Amino acid sequence: MHDDEKSLLEHQLNIAAFEEAMKEKISRQNFEYDGERYVHNTVQLIFKAFVAGQNPDGLRIIGQQLYAEINPSSKYASQAEEMIQKNHIYPFPICFVADPYGYVVRGGIGGWYRLDDVKLFFKVNGELHPIQ
């Protein structure tokens, strides 16, 4: 993984963690992100403090990474274009979590997806490889 790509991915993971932690505290309309920063100045300052509080360097990427892209047949297919337009990494980084309703894929702009909604990839040496 190249340093600039790693840096962007770490930044997007920080954004996802921040929005998850703050979803009950900050109005969703104030989470508008322009690709570089939060448009709302107070939210941007809170985000900077949040990242600094994670650890001195924010979240770090180590080792192999998992990614997903939304299947065109998914009811969430429109989110793929939205992620691309907002300069999010696409395919997007994911992790798996237990969910009683089957939404076990965590990541992306929607936050939660079923395995049927996405195509999975792993990244090695900067290249995405499909998981079949």
Could you characterize the architecture of this molecule?
There is one protein chain. With 132 residues, this protein is of the alpha+beta class. It has 2 domains: 52 residues, no CATH class; 66 residues, no CATH class. The chain contains 3 helices and 6 strands; from the N terminus they run ααβαβββββ. The chain has a 6-stranded antiparallel beta sheet with strand order 4-3-2-1-5-6. β2 and β3 form a beta hairpin. It is globular and about 45 Å long. The two termini are 22 Å apart. The model has no long low-confidence stretch (mean pLDDT 85).
Q: Could you say which overall geometry the principal axes of the C-alpha atoms support?
A: globular
Which regions are unreliable across 5 or more consecutive residues at pLDDT < 50? none
- Distance from N terminus to C terminus (CA atoms, Å) equals 22 Å
The radius of gyration over CA amounts to 15 Å
Task: Round the mean pLDDT to the nearest integer and report it.
Answer: 85
Number of helices: 3
Number of strands: 6
Q: How much helix is in the residues? A: 25-40%
Order of helices and strands: HHEHEEEEE
Order of strands across the biggest sheet?
4-3-2-1-5-6
Beta content: 15-25%
Based on secondary structure, the structural category is: alpha+beta
Main sheet: strands, sense, barrel: 6 strands, antiparallel
User: Domains counted in the coordinates: how many?
Assistant: 2
In terms of quaternary structure, what is this?
Answer: single chain
